């Protein structure tokens, strides 16, 4: 299958969920924007709790991603399966981190006032 | 009054394709030349094949008339019916309005076709009206011949322990309920059958067996249930490696395989099935002569089997009005049952202005939606060549695909073609067709339906 064919199918796959992706993106960008406007910088702010939570949420992907696809972790067997699932877990971690990290900054700022 | 949406899904995809990513896509509408014509093209059938052709030809032809004959308002994603019958999907997930896929400018005739007069290039509709054509694409799909099983009707599906994933979307839902009722009884015998004819989605009878085994095992009472698989021939699947794999897996999962038995009659109230022993000369996708012999019940040894659940796979053929036309195969293995086309060019063997696509064609394999994806560009290119008086440039290599579900949650991506005794033709070099995989299951569960709609809209 060509790259173009794969992209076409991905577009069709994502099309019903675009509204959900847009809501999610709006929340994350809004949060990041709000935090940046209040002095947040990703490299300067440290929150072990946010990082730990993001890692834990990322790890939960190993359970809920197979469940969401009507399957179980026991059927994740091939190299491609594991690459796909680890990729999903990393993506979940990244989304959780870029949400929780600026959020923790805003909460800390609120508590310091 | 309800406001119209700002952008329909199709328009959204078109916008997407015209932006960045779209420029990378090999959409035929962006790359292929159009043809000026005054021809009238009739497409019989608005399933996957017919709708894909309507969308493709709309983009390629300027000035002609395209008529699509399809009585149904609802488009059924039939590859999803095994998921419905296995209790994984809701029935609603498989249905969309046909209008959603119908391209603008196509004359949609909401009527059944009743007759094809190939010599006079004329179609007669069920309401008596006629359509003259210059070019014809036969995409009528398949006819389910439940009547060849004595005592069986599609209305029985869901009652008396009878299931049949093929019957309809309602039949698939009722099959799920029948399986659930059997499971709830806590014990009993299930019989899974196969047909002595080519069938659409030849993997479906096997998938239904595997998903039911999953449900039996999940109940924690597997040993309380007996599962038999009754095959009319020596094989269970046309691809040799997969055939051996399925046989071994059935043995491992304590499925009693019985070969050379055809379901010949059913007594729903007694919950008994009669099987005719068709003998070791029988083949899985049997030829016409053999089928004729198989359906003759005189002097044929039979066995009666009690069941608590039975999955019925009906014999299949082209629709009667196609069988009664001059377009049906006159000799060879598909004689009297399937459309007579060249399996590579998909052009009719005797009527050059006629093409066939999808389940209706006489081909050794290929009754899947995946085959339609491969066939549609071939029919498009070859039809346009015929319209211009050119030689046929495109050839179909028999590509077909079956995500062979081996349990609820895992599958194998089985893709193969005509060559080398149905050798594998993997689309993705990194997916091994011989491995059971969660990722392949995810493709079946999440991605193949969107891919199917892309094919329908002529985008893939």
Automatic annotation (TrEMBL), chain A:
This protein's UniProt keywords: Membrane, Transmembrane, Transmembrane helix
Membrane-spanning residues: 17-37, 49-70, 82-107
Protein name in the entry: DUF5368 family protein
Automatic annotation (TrEMBL), chain B:
PROSITE patterns the record matches: TAT
A single GO molecular function term of this UniProt record: FAD binding
Domain of life from the UniProt record: Bacteria
Gene3D superfamilies in the record: FAD/NAD(P)-binding domain
Alphabetically ordered keywords of this record: Oxidoreductase
Every FAD/NAD(P)-binding domain range: 40-156
Oxidoreductase listed as a keyword: yes
EC class of the enzyme, as a word: oxidoreductase
GO BP terms, alphabetized: sulfide oxidation, using sulfide:quinone oxidoreductase
EC numbers, comma separated: 1.-.-.-
PANTHER family in the cross-refs: SULFIDE:QUINONE OXIDOREDUCTASE, SULFIDE:QUINONE OXIDOREDUCTASE, MITOCHONDRIAL
Name of the molecule in the record: FAD/NAD(P)-binding oxidoreductase
Species, as recorded: Vreelandella alkaliphila
